[in-house]
Design a protein that fits this description.
The structure holds two protein chains of two kinds. Chain A is an alpha+beta fold. Chain A is about 35% helix and about 25% strand. In chain B, α3 packs across α4. By secondary structure, chain B is an alpha/beta fold. The chains are: A alpha+beta, B alpha/beta. The interface between A and B is large, with 71 and 68 residues.
């Protein structure tokens, strides 16, 4: 029996009002008069009328809502309803809650074929035509994951209610397992690798992302053992060998670098730094686990991990971003024996939000890409729901905009964790699945969502990109799991090892953990499913979310299971870890995969990579004669790469867990901070500081300097706010494009070499990293012309550091009028690819100059150690690192944040910058602007000693922002006007 | 500092409640002895209730706000613990519901009114200034205070008649007002469109308090959005430039008051 419960708001409907506003901004031919948002629950279960009414009563707050069962709610004046629900098989979190509520309230569990399906009904009135309604419907849903229907309210519908479609997944009956003949032509091998295994019905299953060479190795292997592979064996190899999991570009030998980039430069830097630090080495677990871990104090360790979730976010921004943030939380929960997530970080690189040019994935222009604005809105909302619902403060973030991110956005998500260094006397970061332990999966169930995610993100996005790669996260399922693990099971030592189910699902997590014990045997039919009909290979590689894999000693299973049940977490034994040397998968007793661990993990051969640099010189922009520096400054402050983004920060909870010290927004003027500080252990005054550095545009000139500047900026942002150089670690996220292209590889080598040089120079070890090497889009514009868009090579450097005393940290805004302003470091003529030059080069994007900032780490290190000393002595009142937009924007930001003016003289600035624009806007690294109380200036100057400093002006009370060159006033603006520019970007986008 | 006589606090957890640790911390620091208890453990052993003097429903996202904030968790309480909760309220006890906890206890009917979507229909994170207008053990000596909010459904709705009655009885605990923080960051007083600017309400002779702002997130001085400026101002006032920064923030008094109620 199928029934529909309608829940109708009484009184003012805020959601309806806001929705109406957004409908009327869609450029409709008519006008929307009223919108009312009604929640609909379709219940497919044999419930009697009184039971249905009782169920409805559970779903309604009588003070706010009315309900009706099966009858159309009595609402007058509306002419249309647009229903938005999920497509079959897409995770419906609310439906799950409703089923739990009804089960609990009626004391009646749902039977096997019974379920709840939710949807939203937008009741609409106004003079609208069919086209208008279609535009509205399209603005409300993403057809990849949601369905919509437009319904005219007729007398018949009023009487009988809406039709009751249920989006149930019905999978065709298919043969469980097929063998795949590899005794075929090279051409067919290429097709299998690129498009997937052919199902018995002739349809390809989606990319394996295995090239001919890899396919040939697999062909040889099965020839040698004299049998043909099963589909699940091939799919499993494709997962484990994917670029996403293996990072072949970083691990293979390249040019004369025999051990590959990762081992030589990234791990190489860390090993050297740790050795040099000797007894001060604070690394505890680096590169070997889901996150990197460093010493917090003698009792605690903090961990950090930053991930990317680019490809899924391009197709389903909300789903991609929420699974990204909730997924990286699992890298914390899966660190060591399980760390508690204590802070989230994000970073978004988008195309320009006002860009309305269309892109399509296919030649027939049927697969439309979402616009940068749609992607941006969805991504922001995804991290909102994921972070807020999980009770983890989202404290650190940034946004960057470039035309080349419109084909594929970059979505960075990170999580910091806290874990005692020892649990019951044992080191918490050591874990080992033992022979004989049960393989246990906990959390969500498996569906067809998230199939081929790992292989999909290892290739270019085009028309063959699978829609099933998209998933929707369920933060509450994960929150239950997380609490049960890190707050209870962990300390009771109920398991011997744990890892996350991310890319590749259990095929990767089980195979990874099986390395610890030496083998595994899985009974695949035991894996809990969302719906029947999934094939074994799908169960094995599905990336359905919120799942972790644990090894539980048999003697602990009963206790573990009992705990999980009492916390509302589903836990299932799916097999056993062995020492057999093989990974064996059975399905209803039949062996469907039997593969030596050695071939699975090490069968992929080394491939030598070769690079070749093709260097292009850029022209410099033409500087207009009557340039107004005031206008330029305003434009810079309103530019998305510099402007405030409180429209994001204000919707991300950054105070939950009560650990905030430096928040994402600071001062009277809502300044976005470059570094954030939390106090994770309330009995300690120590803090954790986070910051980032990123300069995608610099890659257009030199990826070596791009990487150098990213590292220098990340470190500088931290030390400017109270971070301590000797207690800073860094994380790398390389997001590259067309990575088999020789020039791109040469650029990569340059960036990686810089990473080594500067990490070693500053003594800041890499503790974790992740790469994403194929951020390319290949498709068509609205005229059907081929378009390829590659992102600029992008390196995100994130720092995490330990602050000795949170009471001493410093925020960037001016505080007290009369304080003296200093700039630390030298200002040089380094305007290449600066935000200033990019404004001047708007119409000639290649004219961005060549004089990119160079990083002199020896000089800068002295500056950073000096400011560290001054901050620890309590001499610094405000401190801001100079980055994108140069000195003028940094000064303006401090003024805006503090709501105070300043009076600054450019003549006093040291460095080789001569012209006014060079002094104002050069992005020379290593510089920090600080203010110091007048009476402290002498002791401050003595404390910082021999570094380059320039006393450039004072903070003023008159709210005037004045910059002079000697006697000549260059800029004279009201701080309030600058603040308006700084917030203009946010205001525009929060509409 | 903990002795056998310290008031015992039951801090609920489970199903997406997420502020239980900092809420426990605030009660412990104030001199209480707080236990975090998962709702399923409470259902399995409801007799535990009798051990406690204070019951806290912390903030969070119970059941992800699915079907409306606080609803599902309230249903679970009602289905399994109605009798025990009733007995608890009838004793001389204190109950607090913070944010999602407030939403839960209005759904349970422990407090009148309801919480609906903010007029902006957006999840909003900021600080608010509050005027204390209620009579309650929780609010002894409090005239005004500033606390952070973080919610999407915080617009308090109440019928006129009930409102007048509550006002008369001193059951409007806290109202949004323009104070130091609003002036500091140029903010509107009312962040969510709540009727009569109501941020928190009382019942049961003031022993039950529900409020949208989070006092536990304002328990330390460094939680204040203006602490860096305050620090500098204090420093300039001191003759030798040396100062000892305050430890507690503006929200701590609420927890202190609760503990004092039993220690008087």
């Amino acid at each position: 029996m199928i029934s529909r419960i309608y829940i109708v708001p009484k009184g003012e409907d805020s959601r309806g009002n806001i929705t109406k506003k957004s409908f009327n901004s869609l450029g409709l031919s008519g006008q929307v008069k009223e919108v009312l948002l009604v929640d609909s629950y379709i219940i497919s279960a044999s419930l009697a009328k009184p039971e249905l009414v009782k169920s409805a009563e559970l779903l309604v707050n009588k003070n706010l809502e009315n309900f009706s069962v099966n009858k159309m709610p009595k609402l007058s004046g509306f002419s249309y309803v647009i229903e938005i629900g999920f497509a079959p098989g897409v995770t419906d979190n609310v439906a799950k809650t409703v089923m739990e509520e009804i089960t609990d309230g009626l004391r009646r569990p749902f039977k096997k074929d019974e379920a709840v399906y939710t949807s939203k009904l937008f009741f609409i009135s106004g003079n609208l035509n069919q086209h208008d309604l279609e535009i509205i419907a399209l603005s409300l849903h993403n057809p990849l994951i949601e369905r919509s229907q437009i319904i005219k309210i007729t007398p018949k519908i009023k009487k009988e209610g809406l039709s009751k479609y249920i989006p149930k997944v019905v999978l065709p009956k298919q043969k469980d397992v097929v063998t795949v003949s590899l005794n075929v032509s090279d051409e067919e091998l290429i097709n299998i690798g690129k498009l997937g295994i052919k199902s018995p019905n002739g349809i390809r299953r989606g990319p394996l992302a295995l090239d001919l060479e890899s396919m040939k190795i697999i062909q040889d292997y099965f020839k040698k053992i004299k049998r043909e592979p099963t589909d699940i064996e091939l799919e499993s190899l494709a997962q484990t060998w994917s670029e996403h999991c293996k990072h072949t570009i970083f691990s293979n030998s390249i040019d004369e670098i025999k051990d590959g980039l990762y081992k030589t430069y990234i791990k190489g830097a860390t090993n050297l730094i740790r050795k040099q630090k000797g007894k001060d080495d604070f690394c505890l677990s680096v590169f070997s686990d889901n996150s990197g871990g460093i010493v917090f104090d003698k009792d605690y360790m903090v961990t950090h991990k930053v991930e990317t979730h680019n490809s899924p976010s391009a197709l389903d921004p909300f789903g991609g971003a929420i699974t990204g943030i909730v997924g990286v939380n699992r890298d914390t929960i899966g660190f060591g024996m399980g760390a508690k997530p204590i802070a989230n970080a994000y970073g978004f690189c988008f195309g320009f939000p006002d860009d309305e040019r269309l892109l399509f994935r296919d030649k027939n222009l049927a697969q439309k890409m979402l616009s940068p604005r749609r992607i941006m809105d969805g991504v922001i909302r995804g991290v909102n729901v994921g972070g807020n619902c999980s009770g983890i403060p989202t404290i650190s973030g940034f946004t960057r905009y470039d035309d080349r991110y419109r084909g594929k956005p970059l979505v960075f998500v990170g999580t910091v964790g806290l874990i005692p260094r020892k649990i019951n006397g044992k080191l918490s970061h050591e874990k080992c699945a033992q022979k004989g332990d049960y393989i246990v999966v906990i959390g969500g169930r498996v569906g067809a969502d998230g199939i081929h995610g790992a292989t999909f993100s290892s290739v270019v996005m085009d028309s063959s990109s699978p829609a099933t790669a998209v998933q929707i996260g369920d933060p509450i399922t994960q929150k239950k799991l997380s609490d049960a693990i890190v707050k209870e099971a962990r300390d009771r030592e109920l398991y011997s090892s744990i890892t996350d189910n991310g890319a590749g699902g259990i095929s990767c997590s089980v195979a990874e953990m099986a390395k610890e014990s030496g083998g595994a045997i899985v009974q695949l039919e035991k894996v809990p499913l969302k719906y029947p009909g999934l094939l074994p290979w799908q169960i094995w590689i599905s990336e359905s979310q919120e799942r972790m894999t644990l090894s539980v000693p048999k003697k602990n299973w009963k206790e573990f299971e009992k705990l999980m049940i009492s916390r509302g977490v589903e836990a299932t034994v799916i097999g056993e870890f062995t020492g057999s040397g093989d990974c064996v998968v059975k399905y209803h007793g039949k062996t469907i995969m039997h593969m030596p661990m050695d071939f699975l993990h090490n069968g992929l051969p080394e491939r030598h990579l070769v690079s070749e640099m093709t260097k292009a010189e850029n022209y410099s922009p033409i500087i207009p004669k009557n340039i107004s520096y005031e206008k330029i400054l305003e434009e810079l402050l309103g530019n998305g790469n510099i402007a405030g983004f409180d429209f994001i920060s204000k919707q991300y909870d950054h105070e939950v867990q009560a650990n905030s010290v430096i928040k994402p927004l600071s001062g009277r003027g809502w300044l976005n901070t470059d570094a954030q500080v939390i106090r994770p252990v309330p009995t300690s005054d120590k803090g954790v500081i986070l910051s980032i550095g990123i300069y995608p545009s610099y890659s257009d000139i030199s990826t070596y300097d791009m990487a150098g500047c990213a590292i220098d900026t990340a470190i500088r942002n931290a030390v400017a706010s109270g971070g301590v150089l000797s207690k800073l670690a860094i994380l790398d996220n390389f997001c590259w494009c067309s990575s088999y292209d020789k020039n791109r590889l040469a650029q990569l080598i340059d960036a990686v070499r810089a990473s080594y040089d500067y990490a070693v120079g500053y003594g800041t070890p890499f503790i974790s990293g992740k790469d994403s090497m194929f951020n390319d889009f290949r498709g068509y514009d609205e005229k059907g012309n081929q378009v390829s868009i590659s992102i600029p090579p992008t390196l995100l450097i994130s720092t995490i550091g330990i602050v000795p005393d949170i009471n001493k940290v410093v925020t960037p805004e001016f505080k007290i009028a009369g304080d003296v302003i200093y700039i630390l470091g030298e200002t040089n003529n380094e305007l290449g690819a600066s935000e200033y030059y990019k404004i001047l080069a708007k119409n000639n994007p290649d004219n961005i100059g060549n004089n990119i900032p160079k990083v002199d780490w020896k000089k800068n290190k002295k500056t950073y150690l000096a400011i560290e000393k001054a901050i620890q002595k309590g001499l610094i009142v405000s401190s801001i690192s100079v980055g994108s937009g140069g000195l003028a924007t940094s000064l303006a930001k401090s003024a805006i944040g503090g709501g105070l003016g300043c009076d600054v003289d450019l003549k006093k600035i040291k460095g080789d910058a001569k012209k006014v624009d060079e002094k104002l806007f050069s992005e020379s690294q290593g510089r920090i602007v600080v203010t110091v109380a007048k009476k402290d200036t002498k002791i401050f100057e003595k404390t910082v000693g021999g570094i380059t400093i320039s006393k450039i002006g004072t903070v003023s009370n008159n709210k005037k922002f004045v910059i002079k060159d000697g006697n000549k006033k260059i800029i004279n603006e009201d701080v309030e006007k600058l603040a308006k520019s700084y917030h203009s970007f946010s205001r525009k986008l929060s509409q | 500092m903990t002795t056998k006589n310290n008031p015992k606090v039951l801090v609920l957890s489970g199903y997406g409640i997420n502020c239980e640790e900092e809420t426990k911390l605030a009660f412990d620091r104030a001199g209480g002895e707080a236990d975090i208890v998962h709702i399923n453990d409470l259902i399995a052993n409801p007799k535990q209730f009798s051990k406690y003097q204070i019951l806290a429903f912390p903030g969070g996202f119970s059941y992800g706000d699915d079907t409306g904030s606080g609803k599902a968790f309230a249903n679970k309480m009602r289905n399994h613990l109605s009798k025990e909760l009733k007995e608890f309220v009838e004793r001389d006890t204190l109950i607090i519901g913070i944010c999602n906890g407030f939403q839960i206890i209005t759904n349970l009917g422990l407090l009148p009114g309801a919480l609906s979507h903010n007029t902006s229909a957006q999840y909003t994170v900021r600080w608010v200034d509050l005027k204390c207008t209620g009579k309650s053990p929780w609010l002894v000596g409090v005239k005004s205070l500033s606390l952070p909010i973080a919610h999407g459904e915080g617009r308090y709705i109440i019928e006129d008649e009930k409102y007048n009655e509550m006002k008369k009885n001193g059951e409007i605990a806290l109202t949004y007002t323009k104070g130091d923080i609003c002036k500091y960051q140029n903010l509107e007083a009312n962040p969510n469109g709540a009727m009569h600017d109501i941020a928190g309400v009382l019942s049961h002779e003031g022993r039950v308090l529900g409020l949208m702002p989070h006092p536990e997130r304002a328990q330390f001085f460094h939680h204040r959005p203006d602490w860096q400026l305050q620090k500098e101002v204090l420093k300039r006032k001191s003759s030798n430039g040396k100062i000892k920064l305050p430890i507690d923030g503006p929200g701590f008094v609420i927890f202190k008051n609760a503990i004092n109620y039993f220690n008087k």
